[in-house]
Amino acid sequence: MNKILQLLSLLIILCGNFCLGQNLNDIEKLASNYNKTFDVLEKTMNIKPFDRGSKFGLESRVYNLKAFKILVESNNEENKISKISILTEKTGNNDELWYNIAKAANANKEYKFINSFVSGSEDDIYEKDIDFNAMVNILRKSKSLGDYTYSIAFKKDNLYYNFNMASKTFFSVIDENLKERD
Description:
By secondary structure, the protein is of the alpha+beta class. It is 31% helix and 35% strand. The chain has five helices and nine strands. The chain has a nine-stranded antiparallel β-sheet with strand order 1-2-3-4-9-8-7-5-6, covered by helices on one side.
């Protein structure tokens, strides 16, 4: 019994690094490091960079976790975090991951809907600026989500949260600036 408890404790400790990014709370935890230094992020999240680089003094670091990668960038000389991107591996459950995260943001009154789009060539679909529920209805009726690209953006406080799916890959961008789409 004691060995089972030790194993469970180890799994809980490891899950902090391996399960990060699986829900909106995890994304908010990452976002709480926005405008802080890389060192603060690494200490807070208990992660180490897999790779790092700089372009004319502006640093970026990649954190390679079990199911996804996190790219963190700075856009100032103080190396304060100015953009956080999360990219998953291609798996069969990324659609559900997008759904759960976007659903949680949509239900949270702190998140203000900004824009959205859904596009699927097989079903000849292209819709823009529709609410979360309308997006989900379209996605549920699709023949196959393999060729679909869809995105929804929210704003909370001073940050924009973009939750995207393309080619069965979930990616999210947290930034102070929202890039307009065509």
